[in-house]
Amino acid sequence: MGKAVTRFHVGDKAAVGNILDSCGKCAACLAGRGNWCESYPVLTYGSVDPKDGLPTRGGFADEYVLPDKFTYHLPEGLDPAGVAPLMCAGTTTYVPLKRWGAGPGKTVGVVGMGGLGTSR
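Given the sequence above, the corresponding structure tokens read:
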């Protein structure tokens, strides 16, 4: 772990969503919305890692190096396989659900074909 990492300690269980990094400089990134990065965020799959120039490999990767702001604590007792869908489709549907005030007493319909929601 790098010395700038403050939210994690060696041995913590962590989860990684579908976004690994963003430019950190555009208006969206500076507003804390790296998922709307104007240079397009670095995804866990199908992107080029700006640090080493290699393609990202999703679940086939041996390791990832990413900022802790794109890493999430995995609570004790949760099965990592059960959490995995939340880190992909759950992440991309969260922003629109929050934006439109979804919650108790609201009816929500989620329609998707090969992916849910949008991170942009």
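The radius of gyration is 15 Å. Try to locate this feature in the token string yourself.
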